[in-house]
Amino acid sequence: MLFQSMSRKNKGLDISLGSPEAEAEALESSRVKITEVYEDWHNLFSQLGHEKFIVIGRKGAGKSAFAQYAKAKSHSDSNLFIDFIKQDKINLEMLVQVGNDVGHELEKESIFKWLIYTHIVKLFTESEAAKDSKDFDQLRQFLKKNTGFVNITETDIFEITQNKSIDVNIEPLKRFFRQKFHDDITIKSNRAPFYKLIPHLEDVIKSIFKSPIEMQNQNSYVIFFDDLDVRFKSTDKASVDSVVSLLRVAKSINVGFRLIDYSLRKQLRSFDLPLLHCCYRRFVV
User: Strand 275-279 and strand 80-86: pairing?
Assistant: First the structure.
């Protein structure tokens, strides 16, 4: 590794003080493994196992460490699936502006719902049980063809802005509906604005949780929205509205998918999403 050949061969203990950030200790190359040193002193796993879904604390308090530890533990748990949505990767204001420019009154809550639903479907299709089933091939194709709208990066935001389009390829999802539900998505074109697919994605997720694969494996899915303080300004109404929209959506999904009885006449297992975490600030949002 870099500088390793230049290091002096000192006798004695080889001491490592770890990394300044949890993201670094979650890497495979880290000398200090987060799974070996993290302790849940705040009892977050127990707290977030019920109705709570927000982790707030000062910088360095351990928010990212908790999320990274949970992610690392999921690698050894075949029934736990975790993903991150980085706040610094998505620019809601720019997406809303693109929607307005092409004649769509785009709401921030729709963007958050789209991100959460597509990430949950993505995690499900990556599970071992789903990989062995051809029933979900069309869902994988849908995600693959629209990866720029699912795993959004700054480059994708730039391309969306340049293309002045919020349309996604819906043909694979149409085929999935015909095969799975014997029904059609009532959109004639093979492309459509992504927010128009939100009700259909809700149907997909409900179908997933009723599927024999899910009932047998009892999987859990977690989405972390990371670094909510990035670009946040308490004096900026649009910035505050973004956080409030995310809180509304997160609450709605947590409550909806925890309590709705899909004909099983008993409460389904917890739908553990999405978990939000941000930095503590002195002002109240």
Answer: unpaired
